[in-house]
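Researcher: Let's continue the batch. This sequence belongs to TATA-binding protein interacting (TIP20) domain-containing protein, and it's 1262 residues. Same format as the previous ones, please.
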Amino acid sequence: MPEINFNSLKDKALDVDPDLRFMALEDFKKYLNEPTTAASTKSIESFIPLLFRLLKDTNANVQSQAVKSFAPVIRFISSESILKLLNQLYEEILKENTAGHKDYKKITTSIPNMTLRSIFNSNSKFSNRLSRDIVDSFVPKLIDNTITIDSIELLIDLIKNLGFVLTNEEIANLLHTTMTIAFEEENIIGKRSVIAFDLLLNYLDSSEPSCNILNELINQISLKFNSLAISLHSINLRLSLFSVILKSMKSYDDYDGSILFGTTIKHIFQVAVTYMKMDDLDTELDVEDYDFDLMIQENLIRENALNTINDLVNALPLELFEGYLNDTIKLIQTFIGYDPLNFENDNDEIDLDEDSEIEFSDDEDDINNNDDYENDCSWKLRNKSAILTRTITSRYPTTLPLIYSELIPCMTDAMNDRNDIVSNDSIKTLITIINCTSVDNEITSSSRKLGRSGSDVSMTIESSPIYQLFTGVTPILENKIFNNLLVSKKINRFPIFLKLIETLITVNYQLSTDFLNEIFNAIKTLNLNTSGNMEYLSLYKTIFLNNEIGEVSNDFVNYILSDLSKSIDNKTSYHNIIMESLNISIIIFQNFKRIDKLNAFESQIHKLFNSIIKICHDKQYSSELRQKSISALSELNANIEISEDSFIKTTNILKESLNYEVTVKVTIESLVNIFNKKCKNFWRYLKEADFVNFLIAKLIAFISSTDDSLYYISLKLLDIITKIQHIDNLEDDQANKLLSLLVGFSESTTDYTQLYLLFNIMGRILPNCDTNDKFLQGLIKIMNEKLTDVDDFDLTSFEFLIQQLSRKLCKENLSEIFMTNLNLKLFISAKTLSIIALENNLQDKIDEEEVELNNYIDNDISISNDKLLFDIQFLGSIGSQKELRLIKLASFLRLLKNPNESIRLASSRSIGLLIIKDINKDLPLLLDSYEKNEDERDLNLISMKQLLKNDDLNNSVLLEIWDRIWDTISRYNEKIISSTSELRLSGDVLSRMCLLNNNYISKLIDKVDSVSNESTIYTIIVILKQLMHKLENNNDILSTLLLHNLKFLTLSNIEIKQALIGTLLTGLHNKPELLLPNLPNRVLPLVYDELSAKDEFKKIIPMGPYKYVIDEGLEIRKLCYELLYTIILFEDSLLKANNINIYDIGVNIVNKGLTDSETDIVILSSINLVNLVNKDFHFLIYNNELLPKLIDVLKLNLNKKLKSKASTQETENFEESLRSVVKLSKVINNSLVINNYNNNDWNLFYAEMKTNFILTFNSVDI
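Model: Same format as before. Here are the structure tokens for TATA-binding protein interacting (TIP20) domain-containing protein:
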């Protein structure tokens, strides 16, 4: 926005035309709100008197615009001017309130008050010092004078926006003041005082001073109550204030329920119970003389008392509330059925015969049949009783035995309550109880005995909650559902009934066999319109997720299939209805694979099939729906044998789908699904040679795509298709083109997963292709450049490719070509030539190499290192398949002493290959060598690692290796890790055993619980890291192992800390679903403790007259900040779902990272904070302490000086650190400006930084 002429603006603001005055204020406000505005303070301050004048303008629109114009001014004037402006506005409030002796109790607010409040509630936040000055100036004025609506509203805004500067003593005094006002004022002022009271509680916490304030406050509330005449207002207010306090406690950090003293808890509970007036219920109700207004008042008080007890349950752990549990149960039993005006069961009803002339009006009939009509408010007590039961169940799951024995009968009766709200909440409570009684609920299984005196609810098999649910409660619920709930007059409440039914289906596998049939009968009898209804779709989904098709009647299955067709076909159906219908169709189709005969469903399946294919290419539907319809079509094809007509339609749909970018990926995934399952339809596709060839042609095009995901899924499908014999039908040029492409991709990728597929496909199409020199040279290049290290590569597909090549060429010169062109030092070269030798029975070649190696070992006849490496690896590969004639294991063991490291490593790998031929004889030799020869232990472990690549080893072999390795490690020094390389190799071997047999993970967990040897601990962590990377399932046991390992992070061992944090990082990348739930309470607190430099890891090295400090813990901290970096980059939804507080992460980085003396840590901290600010601006203003702290640490870093005689590296690091801090400052400022958030302290800091570091500032981009 261009600069503004203030003189001209003032003239417009004083014009007689109200429109011009309005426009002047609009221009002024827009100018100030522009982020780039740099107006002078003097110009803006000169306009303030005009704003005050316009607050009294006769035109309402001008007044309103003037009110809005004050808040933006705050950004541009000094703290002193701000305080002066606020006080001036307050004076205007006082003038307006006193002018004309206006009523102080009026419920409207003044214009100056609106202005003042708009400033407090704007994004222009005040510095701590100014906030303190404002509080000191305003609070006494507001509470020491007569309380008006203006003053109480201002007090609320002050507490909400500036309460962070209040001391505990001030908070306590204000709490007492607002409580007193609430008791003395029975109008809007009193109600707003409770709001102020609630806001003040937010500034307390779990500390001891806060605890004392809260307990004393509850005492003060009762003292104030006792000093006043008892009234309906004072009773309800007392209970409400108790509830406000109880609710606020739940929000305190580290709240564990121990804030309230035992006497305070007892006092709250006794007050609430007193107002329940249980004794009054024993008095017989005299309808004619009873004061019904009094009944209503008493019931409303009782409702408030039940609310307080409910809040007490929510606020306290079971151990603090357990003493009041029995009395609470009695209250619920009493009031869940409390309905004094329900005379339906009275015996004194008027008897009317058929000839009676008495007639009732339609209105009276409506009243008598309206469940909501109750003029005594007793329904509220029944409703609160149901809610209280739900709260107890959710908060204290171990009380389930008591709930079942004492409350379930009441709750099942309450389902039929004449008030719909009570009935609905009773059903919700039953749903909660049933969910908490799930078979897999570990809390239930560990329930302890809890019961009322004289009752036995111990956790025996027959009295356990799950047993009672299955045998006692479910039959009752079934009866009530079908006889009382699923009836025509309650049709509008079916959604809540369906939720109860879904819960029963999900949790209870012992439902009666007729249960689902009864549901279907109810639907048919009531003639319900279920199609396109999300509640019924949810029911269908639950049914088929928890039941086999055979457990549902044919009629019901057909009805559901028809319903799904209607929902999909309906042009008015919403996107989510169609999407859910397709999802349910997929679930049903997957269920059909277990059914042999589908004759009963053919008609409806065909109808649903036609509904689905209409969506596939109809562009009026979203891309998500079209993709989902193709997925549904593939599941139908994969699990159900369809008609010839449907098969042709499906084939055409799939072919067409491969032409659209929106559907190509999902179509290929669908074909992978169909072909992988090898269903009957699969074989029909194989007969369609044209379709297969069309598919291959398409896939050849797709694997040339720059889209990595399309390329990979296309490779997967091509891998499946090339297993088919019809691949012979490929034309030669097409096969050669494909082979050329595959070789090219293999030359360019380093991804072993892709290479595995590529080799598989090449091996299968090779018989149909020309294997010319170009192909051979490409293959040689792949082996020499891409397969230099194949330790972690599954060579199965490569071996298959070489076997196919050997069979195709079937001549000895292939061996010569490879011997001449391959890098003979590589294992893959020896492996390739061993396959060719075995395939073509080149025994002379094998004998030649064997003689050469034997002469070297026994006769010391020299050969080149490259040839020696080849011989060792070649013969090792041969020896894994057939027995060697001259060379035995002992010869290879001698090679482990060779001075050349490459020779030793090659020999160790060959030993692992050789052992497999006679494992019972040779393994003990290897294990003895491992145990006795410490110098060769690494090499022996490499041999074991190679051996364990064989998946067919029996458990006795695994157990022998497992025990010998652990026995050896356990003998190492308790507190010294001598060789991390050896322990890493041990971990690799042991992790491979855990992958082969998951039972070894359980053995590992047992070892974790009793270990103290730090070498053993390090090895366990290495195993955990490997499992995090490679274990594909069994996350539960892996999670247990992880949690047991976390305690090792507290050890003062650098290697262990580095290994464990690196493992956590691996877990975040590979198994986030396992690690994220454990971050908030288990992992992050330990990581935060590692963010600060520790003196124990600092080593002082004297160098001449100087002493240099080496921080050996630096790498640990760098790993920690990398871990936080990874966490910050997760989606917001994932972080929220797992209760990960990014504010806590940010505070720790600010307090520990930006104050670190190492420039590397400052740089990493700045990067993390940049990501945090960009992720969520509100992180900066989560409370009023972070931004001031951030300013201080940024200043600290900016004021650091480069030490004299710094090295080039130190200079570069220093400059990079400075740039990172400046970049962080620019990102923060940009976020503050974009979000229109003003802070005077930040503005001052940023201006100074920009001036003092102008060159760095201009060189840094954001």
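Researcher: Any comment?
Model: The radius of gyration is 40 Å.
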